[in-house]
Write a structure and sequence with these properties.
Layout: H1 7-14, E1 17-25, H2 32-45, E2 50-54, H3 62-65, E3 74-76, E4 79-81, E5 83-86, E6 89-93, H4 109-122, E7 128-134, H5 141-150, E8 157-162, H6 166-181, E9 186-197, E10 204-205, H7 214-222, E11 226-232, H8 234-241, H9 246-249, H10 254-269
Parallel strand pairs: 1-7, 1-8, 2-6, 2-7, 8-9, 9-11
Antiparallel strand pairs: 3-4, 5-6, 9-10
């Protein structure tokens, strides 16, 4: 089969990015975009140059979760410029290209594929330490395209997000199988909404039935690493909605501590060096 004629341009852009992290989920509603956005903010706070690419074409939530709603993408002779949260954290999403926030994207696979190629060829990320890619739920056209175009290496990989519910865990197993079939390295699994932390007394309560062992048991069975289990905290959820870093704004919260641990494990697994302060 003939190679896509755009691959040369894609490789040229991607060669300036040291590490690429796909954030995947088997189903929607597990907090995948929350993990993507908070991970981007966390890594940028460590002095890394970070890009966050929103590939959830039909449901782009990253502009809101990064506090960037209403921003526009600027185009130059070199291509599209990301929208910057700060100097070392750029964001790209179809949400920046829509006339209205509530416009529906009703596209077939080939048109989605074309936009993904544009994002990889035409966005001027520059030299990045890490590009985090927030994907839609499942294993659809977008996932096949991005894994083919990125040509992921051992310095890259996928972070898979789930909740403790059995229905979510079952879908994660399919996501793991997708990674194996597409030869996508798996960094590990993040369990979101693992516990509910009461804002009044800080007592932790299980809100999902975990008799089956949740993500921990699933990871043990399939030989994957559980990067961490993030609790559900109302005040933390509000920070995420406002595009603020949980680790920066509420460093003593259970969620901040877990997110920090997850970030450190990802840095360790990909051998990403943090600049000295």
């Amino acid at each position: 089969m003939a190679e896509d004629p755009n691959m040369k341009d894609i490789r040229a852009r991607m060669s300036r990015i040291k590490h690429k992290i796909l954030v995947l989920s088997g189903k929607g509603g597990v907090g995948k975009s929350t993990v993507s956005s908070q991970l981007a903010l966390l890594l940028a706070s460590k002095g890394l140059d970070v890009g966050l690419l929103d590939l959830d074409i039909c449901g782009p939530s990253i502009p809101r979760m990064m506090g960037l709603e209403g921003h526009d993408v600027h185009q130059s002779a070199e291509g599209w410029s990301p929208v910057y949260v700060e100097e070392d954290l750029g964001v790209m999403s179809i949400g920046f290209l829509l006339p209205k926030d509530d416009d529906a994207i009703i596209w077939r696979g080939p048109k989605k594929n074309g936009l993904i190629k544009q994002f990889l060829m035409d966005v001027c990320w520059g030299d990045l330490d890490v590009l985090i890619i927030d994907t839609p739920p499942g294993t659809s056209d977008e996932h096949i395209s991005i894994t083919q175009y990125l040509e992921l290496k051992e310095t890259d990989g996928a972070v898979i997000v789930t909740t403790p519910q059995m229905v979510a865990i079952n879908d994660v197993k399919k996501e793991l199988n997708f990674c194996v079939k597409t030869k996508t390295p798996i960094i590990g699994v993040v369990e979101n909404m693992a516990m509910f932390v009461c804002p009044n007394c800080s007592h932790s309560t299980e809100i999902f039935n975990s008799l089956h062992g949740g993500a921990k048991a699933m990871c043990q069975k399939y030989g994957q690493e559980l990067l961490g289990s993030v609790p559900l905290e109302p005040s933390v959820g509000q920070l995420c909605e406002e595009g603020k870093s949980v680790v920066k704004e509420k460093p003593e919260s259970a969620s901040a501590k877990k997110l920090s641990e997850i970030g450190d494990r990802i840095l360790q697994k990909l051998s990403i060096k943090v600049p000295e302060a």
